[in-house]
Amino acid sequence: MIEVVIPAHNAAAYLRETLESIAAQTRPPARVTVVDDRSTDGTPALVEAAARELAPRVEIRLLPNAGPPGPAAARNTAIRAATAQWIALCDADDLLLPEHHAALAAIVGTPGTVLGFGDCSLFESDGGEVLVPSHHAKSGLPALPSRPAAAGGRTLEGTDFAAMLRGPRIATSACLIRREAVLAAGLFDEAMRFAEDYDLFLRLAWLGRFAFTTMQVARKRVHAANLSQERNRARFSLGNLRSAVKLRGIARAADPAPFRPGPEDRALCEAMAPRFAETALYDASRGGFAAYAVAARLAAGAGFAGKVLHPRHLARLLAGRLGLLDRGRAAHTPPAGV
User: Fold this and answer.
1) Does residue 189 register a pLDDT over 90?
2) In which band, very low, low, confident or very high, does the pLDDT at 114 lie, cut at 50, 70 and 90?
3) Are the beta carbons of 299 and 338 closer than 8 angstroms?
């Protein structure tokens, strides 16, 4: 069985269309759980109306977020209350294509598989223009070595952790995750509001195998209120650093159970943590002293105090304070050699 989990904060503008896309699945879910995250725009009333009007095609229930604000705690609320074996994650503004459930359920049948994912496109909300035809192509997934798996799916060669660490390969609304594996992994980190899905996927990669299909299973809506906007770049970088520090700690543990990091994964954790620290400090240095203080504390606590006082970071902070920093150009400057 599949249960769809939707975190919703002030999602009334798009949520009805999202729910209709789920009701149109060729393989209906056992239930859809929408978790209201302190909305003030009528989201709960919209969900209750949709539950009446879309029945009996789909069962929809509404729960309040039982944790702190943010999608991580909202998703955890639903996952804890779920009874289905598989969880389909869906953002409140995205659309699932009709074969989403059927295609993903088919590829996760191999024992030991904890996550299945498909491709998705990104479209501009107002006009419908397709901005990214293939998330797989954008993430570089087709270039990675893979082998055939169940029902026309594929699995990656090597470790899924290595493939995922080097770049976000999975769109949140285009995946199916095994509930018991998510519980074993510790659920979403509720202290994270950015990159929390990437963090969970990396931990899941140490619990079992991933399978993927090249089929398009979702459409991601792009609009001004998306969290994944350039203005939140520093927050995502900080989230990635938090995740890297956590994963390095697990990899270094004498007994990391239930996780099973291999030698390659351990080496990657040691190599990537300083790179993530460098990126977080770079992006935070463009955001001002308050943002930099947060990143600096985390980086220093992780053993990267030397990077905190890098002259170029400090010069960038000062330039920002004096209004001399070209933020538009610097936003796309890679952190290497900072």
Assistant:
1) yes
2) very high
3) no
Residues 235/288, Cβ–Cβ less than 8 Å:
no
What's the CA gap between 210 and 208, in Å, rounded?
Answer: 7
Q: Which of 70, 5, 123, 36 is nearest to 239 (CA)?
A: 70
Answer whether 163's CB lies under 8 Å from 156's CB: yes
Q: Which amino acid is at 91?
A: D
What is the predicted pLDDT for the residue at 227?
64
- Please state whether beta strands 95-96 and 209-222 pair in parallel, antiparallel, or not at all (unpaired): antiparallel
Q: What is the DSSP letter of 6?
A: E
Least Cα distance to 175 among 160, 197, 190, 194 occurs for 197
Predicted structure pTM score: 0.92
Measured on CA atoms in the order 142, 242, 204, 21, is the torsion positive or negative? Answer: negative
Q: How far is CA 320 from CA 109, 327, 337, in A?
A: 53, 8, 19
Residue 220, SS3 per DSSP: strand
Ramachandran bin of 7, using left for φ above 0, alpha for ψ from -120 to 50, beta for the remaining angles = beta
